[in-house]
Amino acid sequence: MKNLFAVVLAGGAGVRFWPYSRELWPKQMLEIVGEDSLLRQTIHRLDDFIPAENIFVVTTERLAPDIQYHLSALGAKAKRIRLIKEPLGRNTAPAIGLAAVHLKRIDPEAIMLVMPSDHVIKDIRSFQEGIRTARSGAEEEFLVTFGIKPNKPETGYGYIEVEAGSWKEGSALKKLRRFVEKPDLEKAKSYLKAGNYFWNSGIFLWRVSKILREIEQHMPLLFQGLKTIEEAIGSERESETTGTVYPELESLSIDYGVLEKSQDVLTVPASFDWNDIGSWSALYEVLEPNAEGNILRGNVVSVDSENSILFGGDRIVAAVGLKEMVVVDTPDATLIASRDHAQEVRRVVDELRKNGREEHLIHRTVERPWGSYTVLEKGERYRIKRVVIHPGEKLSLQVHRHRSEHWVVISGTAKVTKGDEVYYVHPNESTYIPVSTLHRLENPGRILLQIIEVQNGDYIEEDDIERFEDDYGRV
Amino acid sequence: MKNLFAVVLAGGAGVRFWPYSRELWPKQMLEIVGEDSLLRQTIHRLDDFIPAENIFVVTTERLAPDIQYHLSALGAKAKRIRLIKEPLGRNTAPAIGLAAVHLKRIDPEAIMLVMPSDHVIKDIRSFQEGIRTARSGAEEEFLVTFGIKPNKPETGYGYIEVEAGSWKEGSALKKLRRFVEKPDLEKAKSYLKAGNYFWNSGIFLWRVSKILREIEQHMPLLFQGLKTIEEAIGSERESETTGTVYPELESLSIDYGVLEKSQDVLTVPASFDWNDIGSWSALYEVLEPNAEGNILRGNVVSVDSENSILFGGDRIVAAVGLKEMVVVDTPDATLIASRDHAQEVRRVVDELRKNGREEHLIHRTVERPWGSYTVLEKGERYRIKRVVIHPGEKLSLQVHRHRSEHWVVISGTAKVTKGDEVYYVHPNESTYIPVSTLHRLENPGRILLQIIEVQNGDYIEEDDIERFEDDYGRV
Predict the structure, then answer these.
(1) How is residue A471 annotated by DSSP?
(2) Residue of B nearest to A317 (CA)
(3) Which of A343, A390, B133, B308 is most buried when burial is the number of CB atoms within 10 A of its CB?
(4) A359: which chain B residues are within 8 Å (Cβ-Cβ)?
(5) With a CB-CB cutoff of 8 Å, which residues 435-454 of chain B face chain A?
C-alpha cells in the first residue's frame, strides 16, 4: 500500500519477564511464544504488506546494537529496516512523535502504523485486513486505534468504549467514545456483555501530518521539542540535538497525551487474536498446558505439580507438589512465584538494581554480533568465559589495560593476532595474551570456534577494552 | 564409663534432603542445623563421656573415604575414631550386628550405645544423663531403647508404649509394652494425653553379648552370617568374607527384627530435645523462622513470601508470593516443593537415578582430602574445573589415558610434576599436561592454590585416572 509505513516500538524493558528478560535483553527479544522472538514475529506480521524499507524500529541508544543484531536473523531484509534511536526510553508519545518527524522527511504523505514489538497476534490475515480498514479512516484525517473484541471479562487490560453503529454508512470503523482504565471483574463482565467495549491494543494508524497536528494541539511542549529535532535531522547536529532535546520531553503515553483529548478518533473493532502477555501468568492464554495443566520447558522433574509454568534450563529444576506457580530458571537467577503474584516480579528487579547486582541487567550468556560469551565464573582477580565465534566472524582488534587472557581452544580453529604476530591455535592448544597487548580473535574455519578464556588481573570488568578495528562499527 | 562404646550409624543416604544431600554427600554430612555437620555434632555429644578410641562409625565402603575425611575436621581425636565398613548399606539389624561382632573382639564385656548420625539433640547434659540411666538396665541384661517424651501429637514418628510405673523400685526405666507405627492425628493426640507413649528415637544401649544372643534367637540367619564374619575379623580373609556374606544378610531394622520380639526391652523416658529432621519441612521444628515465618539462607530476594524455607546459594533466588514452600538452590539443581509435599523429594531422586543423571549422586563441588574441585562446565570433549588445593597438600601422582589438561593458576603457587620435570607455576601463568603423561599437582605455599583446569579429550570422566602415589591411601 502506497505511503504506508510501520513504526515498531521496541524500547521497552519488559521487567515483568525477568529472569528471561533483562534490561539489555528485553521481552521483545524473547522466544517465549512461537518459534521466533516477539520482535521478529512482529516484523514478519508485515510480510508482503509493508516493504522492509518502510519499516522503522524505535529503540533506545543502549539497546540499539543488540536490536540491530537481533534483526539480522531476518536475513537480507534486515539491512533495509531502519532504526530510530531514542537517547533513552521515554513513553509512547515522544517515541511516536520522534518516528513521525523522521517519516515526515521521507514522505510528507506518510501513513504510519504503530505497533508494540512484544505482543502476540497469530492471525496475520485478519491483522492485515484490520490495517486496510483502519487506513480508510486515516485517509479521512482520523486517528485510528485498534480495539480487540474481548472474549472474556479481562481485568488486566484497558478498554475502549465506542459509539454504537458505524461512524459512517458502510464503514466498519466506530467512533471512539472514551478510554477506560483497567476495570474490576464486575465492570469487565458488564463490558463484555455490552458489546461496545474493546481492549486497547496499543496499535494505531494515522497520517504523520495528522498525529503531528494533534500533538501540536494537545502536547505543545512535545511538539516544540520534536520541531527542534526535526530541523536537525540529516544534519551533523542530529545526534547532538536529539541527545539534548529528547530526554527533556515529557514521558507520557500517546493515549493520555493525545488520544483521550482528540475529537477525531475512530476504532477498528479488530477480530484477530491478540495478547500483550503482560506477565508470566499470561502465558497461560497463549500456550497450551499439558494434561496436568503445566507448561513445561527445559530440564524439569515434576512430581504432583499442577497448573504451573515450569521453565528449566540445563540445570535440574525439581517441582514437587506445586499448584498455580511460576518457576523460571536461568543460569544465574531463578524465579519462583505464585501465579497471582507474577506481576510483582518488578519488585525483585527493583531490589537487584538497588543492591548493585547485575542479574537484572544482562544474562550470563551475552549475544554478540560475532557469536556469544558465557561467564562461567567470576572471582577475585579472575573471570572465566566460554567464547563462541561463528565461522568467518572476528572480534575487534583490542587491548586490555588491566587483564591478561589465557585461551584454550576446545573446538574449531582460532586465528590469533597478538602484537605483530598472526598464528593459528587448534583444539587442545592454548595461547596467552599479556596485558596491554593488541590482539584479535577470529574464526577462519567452517565450524564453531569455542575457546575457554581465563582472565587474570586487578580489574576484570567488560569496560576495560579499547577497540581499534571492528567489523561491527563499535570502534 | 568402663566398657562403654558408641556405635554411630552413618551409612544412610538421606535422599529426603536432596539437593543439599547427595548419595555421596548424605544428610549426616550436612550443616543444616547448628554450626557443624550432624555427624560431627553426634560425635561431639560424646565429649568427655566416651573416649574417641571407643567410638565406632559404621558406614558403607562407598562413603567411607568421604566420612573419614569429614571426621578429620574433628582434629586429633579423629585418628582415634574407627570406621566399620559395610560393603553396602543394609538396614540397622545387620549394621548393629556387624558392629557388635567387632566390639566383642575388642571387649567381650562391651556395652554399646547405638546412635543415628543425622538427628538433632541439643541438650547434651540430659542426653548423657539418659545414657547413665540406660546403662543400669543394660547391666541387668536388658535391651534399652530411648523414648522421647512427646510435646505434640506428631504423626511422623513411630511410638513406644511402656508399662505404667517403673520396671523395678527406684529405677527411671520402664518396661516396653509395644512398638507403635506412625499414628494418625487422632491416635497421636490420645498418645500425647495418655502419657505412657514415647517417640522411638532409634537410640539404644545394650551389652554386646546380649544383643548377639537376641539376634541369635530372633534372626538366626543374620546370626550365622555375623558368626562367619566374626571368625574372619583380623585375618587376611576379613575383607573378602565381609564382602561376600554381608550383602546377603536380610535387610531389616533392629526394631522389627529383634526389639519387637524380645521379652527383655526397657525404655528410658528421655527428657532431652530430639528431632530426626526427616524432611525439609522438619527444619521448622529446629530452626527459628523470621518475622514473616521464613527461614532464609544465601542469596534470596523474598517478596511477599511467608512461612517458607528459602535456601539460596551464590545465584539469585527470587521468591514472590510464596506460602508454605520449600526452595533449595544448589549450583546444579533447584528444589521447589510445597511444605506438605517435602517427603516426596525421594521421587525426584528416583527419577534422576532412572534417567542416568548425576545430580542425585554428587555435588558440583566435590570435597577431597587435599581440597576440592568444582565443575564449572562440561561439554562434548571438554570439562572445566576450578581446583582448590590447601597449603601443604598434594594430589596423587597420576596419569590420564584419554584427556590432556591445561592449568591456569589464579592464586597461590603450584608445584607441578610432569614426567621427569618438576617446576613451579604462579598466578597468571599456565602449563599443559599432555595425555598419558605422569603428573602431580601440589601446593607448596602458605595460601590456597587455585587453578582453572581445562580438560580436553575423547573421554573425560573421573574414572580415567591411574594413581601411582597418594598421600591419602587411594592407590
Answers:
(1) T
(2) B334
(3) B308
(4) 316
(5) 450, 452, 454
Q: Do A137 and A35 belong together in one domain? A: yes
Count other Cβ atoms within 10 Å, centred on residue B410: 23
- Cβ B317–A333 below 8 Å, yes or no? yes
Residue bearing cell 477480530: A271
Percent of chain A whose predicted confidence (pLDDT) is above 90: 89
Asked if the structure places residue A235 within a domain, the reply is: yes
Same domain, A319 and A387: no
Kindly report, residue by residue over B339-358, the tens digit of the pLDDT: 999 999 999 999 999 998 88
CB contact under 8 A, A320 and B348: yes
Same domain, A175 and A261: yes
Residue A64 maps to which CATH number? 3.90.550.10
- Binding-face residues of B in 310-339 toward A, CB within 8 A: 315-323, 325, 327, 329, 331-338
Whether A357 maps to a domain, the answer reads no
pLDDT at B473 over 80: no
Residues of B within 8 A of A304 (CB-CB) are: 341, 344
**A387 to chain B nearest CA, in Å?**
13
In three-state form (DSSP H/G/I as H, E/B as E, the rest C), the secondary structure along B172-195 is CCEEEEEEECCCCHHHHHHHHHHC
pLDDT by residue (tens digit) across B171-181? 999 999 999 99
Domain end marker among A320, A349, A378: A349
Q: Is a pLDDT exceeding 80 seen at residue B1?
A: no
Q: Report the largest interatomic distance among the alpha carbons of chain A, rounded to a whole angstrom.
A: 77
- Residue A298 and residue A234 share a domain: no
**Does residue A315 lie within any of the structural domains?**
yes
- CB contact A352 to B (< 8 Å): yes
Q: Are residues A285 and A344 in the same domain?
A: yes
pLDDT above 80: residue A474: no
The strand pair at B439-442 and B414-418 is best described as: antiparallel
Interface contact A320-B332, CB threshold 8 A: no
Q: Does the structure show a pLDDT above 90 at B425?
A: yes
Q: 514418628: which residue's cell? A: B157
Provide the 3-class DSSP secondary structure of residue A215: helix
Tell me if A166 sits within 8 A of A112, measured CB to CB: no
Q: In angstroms, what separates the C-alpha of A315 from chain B's closest C-alpha?
A: 5
A168 & A306 share domain: no
Distance of residue B157 Cα from the nearest chain A Cα, in angstroms: 22
Query: Does A353 touch chain B if contact means CB atoms closer than 8 Å?
Result: no
ipTM score assigned to the predicted complex: 0.89
Contact B321 A340 (CB under 8 A): yes
Q: Do A303 and B341 touch (CB under 8 A)?
A: yes
| Interchain pair A337, B319: CB under 8 A | yes
Put simply, the answer to whether B351 touches A379 (Cβ < 8 Å) is no
Shortest distance between the Cα of A404 and any Cα of chain B, in A, equals 7
- The domain of A85 spans 4-270
Specify whether the CB–CB gap between B5 and B56 falls below 8 A. Answer: yes
The answer on A133 and A42 residing in a single domain is yes
A108 vs B: CB within 8 A: no
Q: How confident is the model at residue A13 (pLDDT cuts 50, 70, 90)?
A: confident
A358 within some domain: no
Q: What is the pLDDT of residue B37?
A: 95
Q: What is the pLDDT of residue A14?
A: 73
Instruction: Give residue B2's pLDDT band: very low, low, confident or very high (50, 70, 90).
Output: confident
* Geometric angle at alpha carbon B128, from B123 and B129, rounded to 5°: 95
Last residue of a domain, one of A294, A323, A349: A349
Number of domains in chain B: 3
DSSP assignment letter at A256: I
Whether residues A387 and A260 share a domain: the answer is: no
